[in-house]
Amino acid sequence: MGERKTGVDAVYEEVRARFPAGPPADTTPPVPVPVAPGIRVVALRTPTLPPALHTNVYLVGPDRGPVAVVDPGSPYPDQQAALEQILAPGGVAAVLLTHHHGDHIGGAVALAARFSAPIVAHPQTAALLAGVVDVTTCLDAGESQHGVVAVHTPGHAAGHLCFEAGGATIAGDMVAGLGTILIDPDEGDMAVYIASLEHLLTRPAGAILPAHGPMITDGHAKLREYLAHRRMREERVLGALTAAPQALADLVATAYADTNPAMWRIAERSLLAHLMKLAGEGRAQDTGDGRWSRYSARG
Ligand SMILES: [Zn+2]
């Protein structure tokens, strides 16, 4: 895929370029591991956000029968071939996508073609992927298909779905077992993301099966931790704002002083997402030249 990347994919690429080249690619073939009743995981190498290097592909269904494959995100031929080999005996009933980002959809078209399987996603994901991936079946909040129930959880991406199955929640990029979740204001919305975390707390989350990193046994505890973390960050962003307008690069140094400066470029995107939420609540204001100040009634 040689096309210019945009949005989150572009930020991921920029952050990867700032990290020194990692160890040579692991050549051990990926192996499926059971994680919940009727769910196995295969971690495939993907162009994702460091420190994560893989996207978890979840296989929902019987060990020896056709399965629903969630987020076959690897664009790399060796990883796609390994996944096809794992799936060949039982076949593929459907390819399910949590959302439209490159590290979740990179192998979807090839896999669907190889097994003549439909590609299933939220209607907004289908629209965002128009011309890239042909989503054949739309799935909306509360609907179930291929053994999963869809929960609409926008915020990281508009059409983001979580899939409940086997007493667990396949969480896509709502929660990470390794690294962080980026809310990029071009594609995401901090207020909406926080509302989606709260919505997941009303569901029987069970274990959370994230797209990156290991499974999280106590899903609700992790969701509460995420909510507390975002509230803490919001307080720091508010604390960094002054009556005098400041540029994002200055605000990030204060509000994200606890974060590795190599990550400040990505933190700036998150900072902006927080500022836009605060502006919506009348607590921060954009001076129109890319600088931000505390809200002042005189505007
Ligand atoms: Zn994503």
Write a brief structural summary:
The chain has 299 residues and is an alpha/beta fold. The chain has 9 helices and 15 strands.
The residue-averaged pLDDT reads 93
Structural class: alpha/beta
**Number of H- or I-type helical stretches:** 9
**So, CATH architecture of the largest domain?**
4-Layer Sandwich
Low-confidence stretches: none
How many structural units, i.e. domains?
A: 2
Strand adjacency order, main sheet = 1-2-3-4-5-6-7
Hetero groups in this structure are: zinc ion
CATH class of the largest domain: Alpha Beta
Annotated CATH homologous superfamily of the largest domain: Ribonuclease Z/Hydroxyacylglutathione hydrolase-like
User: What share of residues is helical?
Assistant: 25-40%
Radius of gyration: 20 Å
Range of strand content: 15-25%
- State the end-to-end distance: 46 Å
Sheet having the most strands: 7 strands, mixed
Shape descriptor reads globular
Structure description:
By secondary structure, the protein is α/β, with parallel strands linked by helices. The chain folds into two domains: 7-232, Metallo-beta-lactamase, Chain A, CATH 3.60.15.10; 234-294, Arc Repressor Mutant, subunit A. It contains nine helices and 15 strands. It has helices at 7-18, 77-87, 102-105, 108-115, 123-128, 190-201, 219-240, 248-255, 264-280; strands at residues 33-36, 39-45, 54-60, 67-70, 92-96, 119-121, 137-138, 144-145, 148-152, 161-165, 168-172, 207-210, 246-247, 284-286, 291-294. The strands form three sheets. A seven-stranded mixed sheet has the order 1-2-3-4-5-6-7. A five-stranded mixed sheet has the order 8-9-10-11-12, with no helix packed on it. Strand 6, helix 5 (123-128) and strand 7 form a beta-alpha-beta unit. The mean pLDDT is 93. The structure holds zinc ion.
